[in-house]
Each structure stands twice: as C-alpha cells, then as structure tokens.
Specification:
105 residues; mainly beta; 6-stranded antiparallel beta sheet; 10 strands; elongated
C-alpha cells in the first residue's frame, strides 16, 4: 500500500520549494511524484504541427523524490508521517502518525 497517493495534499519538506503545498498530480514511479505548482522549471519545446503545439519556453512541473515531501495533516496544520492500520473487517487504511486519524474513509 502506497503511503502517498494521487490526489493527496502534500507539503515540501526539502529542496528549493520547501514549505510549498500542493496536490499530487500523479505518481511517476516507486520513488518520484508530480506535485501541483512545485518544482516548476522552464523547458524549451519545439513546435509540433502534427499535434498543433507551438514552440517556445513553457513552465512545466517536474517529478520530485518521494523523500522530499510529507503528507499534510489538516488537523495539526503541519507535515505528518503516514502509518497503516488494519481494521476489524480486514481493510488496511492509512492513518496520521501524530494523532491516529484516518486519511482514507
């Protein structure tokens, strides 16, 4: 079970964008993810008439390492760690380590 998933609200804890918050747009691989509005770089793109794309310099979000983000806990309004708890009916749910609240409902 993944501790951080697509759609989660995360906060950056290390790097040039430290302190920024955003939603996870997609999980790229086991160790990298794309966060909305974080790690934005300028990319030079070629025009592609087949796709109808004009060339130029565009701002693009790049993947960042999983270790540089932590899930945001709205209860404490701080970054938090994630644990996994087994419910009575056999389901596994993610919980915040600081206060034990369930992330998944």
């Amino acid at each position: 079970m993944r501790k951080i998933r697509k759609g989660d609200d995360v906060i950056v804890i290390a790097g040039k964008d430290k302190g920024k918050r955003g939603a996870v747009l997609r999980v790229v691989d086991a160790e990298h993810l794309l966060v909305e509005g974080v790690n934005v770089v300028k990319k030079h793109e070629r025009p592609n008439p087949m796709k109808g794309a004009t060339g130029g310099i565009v701002d693009k979000e790049m993947p960042m390492h999983l270790s540089n983000v932590a899930i945001y806990n709205p209860g404490t309004k701080r970054a938090d760690r994630v644990g996994i708890r087994l419910l009575d009916d056999g389901r596994r749910v993610r919980v915040f380590k600081s206060n034990g609240e369930m992330i998944d409902t």
